[in-house]
């Protein structure tokens, strides 16, 4: 659980997750030699709530660098983060290049930028492992707590923002 009460002061602690979307490599989509790639990030938890954010579109052939960061305020560490790398077509529609689902509670101790394998959305083998390699995405997770004042007693399920990172990660 990611919400804590300080009974002496009556203040509430909330869990923050900063997610850095660093880069992708080996992106491929059948029938496309040039891609206009972007990342959709969706956090879904108990009930019907979801929070979504999208990166900028990058024109690429296989590898790209976003260096963008988003921040989510979380109410529940049992939530799932769905990362979907997409291609924007000439007609303005979206084709999924690859995706991955990550339980937030498995990410709490990840400190370094990590490459995650993208696979065809929803495709799993008999062992529950994803199949159909579609490239990789490099992400960095940071978790922290902050005090929520009495004015935020009606805390939303999640809030987010996205910004460009300054500086560079070395891998």
UniProtKB/TrEMBL annotation:
GO terms for cellular component: recycling endosome. InterPro entries: C2_dom, C2_domain_sf, FIP_classI. Residues 1-116 form the C2 domain. Pfam families: C2. This is C2 domain-containing protein. SMART domains: C2. It is found in: Recycling endosome. Keywords: Endosome. One of its GO terms (molecular function) is small GTPase binding. Its main location: other. PANTHER family: RAB11 INTERACTING PROTEIN, ISOFORM A (PTHR15746:SF23), RAB11-RELATED (PTHR15746). It comes from Onchocerca ochengi (Filarial nematode worm). GO terms for biological process: regulated exocytosis.
